[in-house]
Amino acid sequence: MGKKTISLSLFTCCVDRKDTLRLPVGSKFGGGGVAGASETNVDRRERLRKLALETIDLAKDPYILRNHLGSLECRLCLTLHTNEGSYLAHTQGKKHQTNLARRAARDLKETQLMIAPAQSNVQRKVFLKIGRPGYRVTKVRDRDTGKEGMMVQVHLPQIKADVIPRRRFMSAWEQKREPPNKAYQYLIVAAEPYETIAFRIPAREIEDESDDAGYWNWSHWDPDTKQYSFQFMFRLLY
Fold this sequence. Notes:
single chain; alpha+beta; Immunoglobulin-like; 2 domains; 4-stranded antiparallel β-sheet; 3 helices
């Protein structure tokens, strides 16, 4: 049986090394190649600028400042920018966002310090009240000047040792027991361990002790009899 001879032709594709297309590492055939660093930065800044345009109103931005040269300054980061696009891109950057967070945290801390009540180291006195003291109120009038006033005597037989009674005048808006009435004011007398007592009196101006009628205004505490006495006069109504 005769042998058949098969001829194979081998074709070798030879490409001249000088004609080889050299592409950067990471690129693909048909692509435009890998963008350079400057092109990447430009693209990034443009994306940030567009994002900022959607979220920031320059008219309400408290940190933007246009100087006398026409450039823009960021007062938060102390940076200089040639145009609004550059500034807007900056506002979306890490530095500006970090400074915003720090500023917000500082403002929050200052607000909390302002709102938080001051802690006092003074301990509040606590004592058992034993009721109201006995008292007597007498209306007085100066025949020569026509001035009117009151004399008050408060009996405090169980007052604490070394305690001196105190008195003061209080406006109708300071007290919280009755609806405010501008026609009245209150005379307050306090002496531990008694309950504080208050007298509702006309809302007239009280005569100053330094005035010519000062001898009418006096107070006296007798530690032996435990009686607190005082007197005050109203100014004349003209």
